[in-house]
Amino acid sequence: NAGVTQTPKFRVLKTGQSMTLLCAQDMNHEYMYWYRQDPGMGLRLIHYSVGEGTTAKGEVPDGYNVSRLKKQNFLLGLESAAPSQTSVYFCASSYGVRLNTEAFFGQGTRLTVV
Amino acid sequence: GESVGLHLPTLSVQEGDNSIINCAYSNSASDYFIWYKQESGKGPQFIIDIRSNMDKRQGQRVTVLLNKTVKHLSLQIAATQPGDSAVYFCAETPAGGTSYGKLTFGQGTILTVHP
Questions:
Q1: Do A97 and B97 count as a contact with CB atoms less than 8 A apart?
Q2: Rounded to an integer, what distance in angstroms lies between the CA atom of residue B45 and that of residue B15?
Q3: Cα(B13)–Cα(B24) distance, rounded to whole angstroms?
Q4: Please, which residues 33-92 of chain B have a Cβ atom closer than 8 Å to chain A?
Q5: Which tens digit of pLDDT belongs to each residue from B79-104?
Q6: Can you list the alpha helix ranges (DSSP code H) found in chain A?
């Protein structure tokens, strides 16, 4: 199984541009999450989804939108990129409500906004 | 706000030594704690977890200790190997049945194992 796959792996954007990060999981997980990781820091939750068609805000949702039209996919959108959004983005999925042994992370997307 | 933090940002050990990585948390309502390992260029990988009603849990070569009195968590790695070199994060979730991945992560400790 592929597990959790994120595309793209790297991207450079100009300030004001938009883009969508795609997360796909093949484990039939109900719960999916988008995190960002900044240098020297742990992951911070941006948005999450508890099932197809549902999304909710996490700790740092401003400047991002998400959609979960299909159970296996969770999209993270940046409508107007800002340098402060330069970060590494991680997607994760889990079967249960708690991130524990059931949770799997993608490889990450390194985004640079210039 | 509530936070989870680490005492030491870096730790260097010799191969075969035991490693101890520490973590302090501030949320007394924390219910569940997790240690993650993150290798360069990869996403976090679950190592071991512990619930607040326990004070010790052992895995393969790893042990997590929880001291609720002083809000302290530690990860012990026995016979550390070069493959253990990575950044280690502690994370916590609050009490309740639906944490929805609202993990609060610590800063991270860089573990370097010298052969």
A1: yes
A2: 21
A3: 21
A4: 34, 41-46, 49, 89, 91
A5: 999 999 999 999 887 765 455 566 78
A6: none
